[in-house]
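Key idea: predict the complex, not the pieces.
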Amino acid sequence: MFENKGRTEIEQLGEFGLIDHLTKNFGISNKSTVKAIGDDAAVLNFEGKKTLISTDLLLEGIHFDLAYTPLKHLGYKAVQVNLSDIYAMNGTATQITVSIGLSSKFPLEAIEELYEGISIACEKYGIDVVGGDTSSSKQGLIISVTSIGYADEKDICYRNGANEGDLLCVSGDLGGAYIGLQLLEREKNIFLENPNIQPDLEGKDYIVERQLKPESRKDIVESLKLMKIKPTSMIDISDGLASEILHICKQSNKGCNLYEEKIPIDPMTYDTAREFGIDPTVCALNGGEDYELLFTIKQSDFEKIKNNPDISIIGHMTEASAGCNLISKSEKVHPIKAQGWNSLKGIQE
Amino acid sequence: MFENKGRTEIEQLGEFGLIDHLTKNFGISNKSTVKAIGDDAAVLNFEGKKTLISTDLLLEGIHFDLAYTPLKHLGYKAVQVNLSDIYAMNGTATQITVSIGLSSKFPLEAIEELYEGISIACEKYGIDVVGGDTSSSKQGLIISVTSIGYADEKDICYRNGANEGDLLCVSGDLGGAYIGLQLLEREKNIFLENPNIQPDLEGKDYIVERQLKPESRKDIVESLKLMKIKPTSMIDISDGLASEILHICKQSNKGCNLYEEKIPIDPMTYDTAREFGIDPTVCALNGGEDYELLFTIKQSDFEKIKNNPDISIIGHMTEASAGCNLISKSEKVHPIKAQGWNSLKGIQE
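Result:
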């Protein structure tokens, strides 16, 4: 996949040379960035605000497969995955650090692709790259991103603030990233069996993009502010709706009723899941990687939100003793179980 | 190395179970930690101060060799390496995030050892663990630490503030970590050739500890404050004295004279280097991993510092056009060249 652009061995640059080369086009767009790359530590100024920090590790063979993941997309996704955690606090993301471990199979041109994706994501979301580390790796590609942001104390949304009667809401639609992954895996396997068959992803752009190039929901955080809604709790959906709902219920010490018919699923997700013989609801509940926001709001905020096409009300919070329940389309009650992506096994459980 | 403590497979716990298990004993000791582990992001409060952020990646086979690195030491070192960057800004380190990638060869007991080292380092240095990520890895052990701290704006020491005539100072002694590594590598090779021969590290505790269990120089930052000295520039020595001096010279646009006879080298480092047929000065200049602080001070601060047993004055800054020079014991002038540890090659150049 790196053949067309020439091949410059990274050793020729050395570590400092590589960092200089990759970061020379990174500008600074946030007033809070006092000093970015180039010293022992970045210096940030969040005077009067709370600082938010989150970090994620992305490993080749576990979190991504370079057989079907373009490096530019991967860089973009690595940033989005991390920003999503800052937005899930109802915060403003402003900086990231990026550490990369590289095996010798990657020429400079490949890493430039990766950094181009990082750069595009940062530009689009107004993020400054303020530090990082590069290292050789005996172990394929390793990406560790730490995201940094801020919020006024009164605006921060934790997972533990949901109250009985609160409405359970979710942005966008769910399950697409998971079913997109199934599609990519299928086409990879067909290709491995017969390299003459080209991948058939026609008409599947949306779900493939959901997997390869997710968008964190900065826009939802901004919309909520405009609507003057402060969620009582919030979390981003990285491990699947079921797992995230249980986090909110557990930390808020509440139960919930989730209505299957209310879960937003895109028609392409729905149809492709059916093609694969998978229940679309299961994709939404357990698939993960959608990076949508799950949050609870007071009932009194219902009027403000009810006509927003990008937010679905999917249930409500109950007392803890009532449990966490999924009400199926046939009105059966099932306890919600976390069967999210377990990255420690690297397989869907 | 993990045989004696039983073997619990990590899969049994799952990701959330593992995080809960490993972090249950981490307390909070800093007022600036508003919310540590358990939400999408940590929440920190540095009101009125600047926030400092630094990050490092440690990879098995590149940065450490588990053949002779106890996991407890490795956890301790991973923390120290990162704190060192915050101290090098003349800041106070307060929090870290720790992300770990684990292959299935590690049972829970091994990771508990690693976290015990992390925990001991955090307790000793007053650091809160406020987040992280755990993942399976197909690729050995991966450790990514981000350190967070703060400083008053007026106290921050960048690399670019050195002036002509400033005194060049270094804490502690140099070269020990490098020669300790040579010793460990030698004993490993002897063991591999003949497993009946036990490692002979007797009387070499100091240099072995310099390699396996370095201490970041929080104490020096505190001493400088007590002495009312603000360095004009500062950097920590991770890649070797030569490389770090060149960073200061380049970023400050100055030259320097470094006096070989003034470079602090411990007698054990000196003698062991001679045993290996290596010039002890080269160990200090190019060895790296000492995590001492290199800094410049105004000449008017000389009286305050001259009797401090833990700080050596090793040279002075000159105008840029004079170049960066090492004055040897025989009073020959050599231009200083960076030949530091190049982790992109994983070998000493």
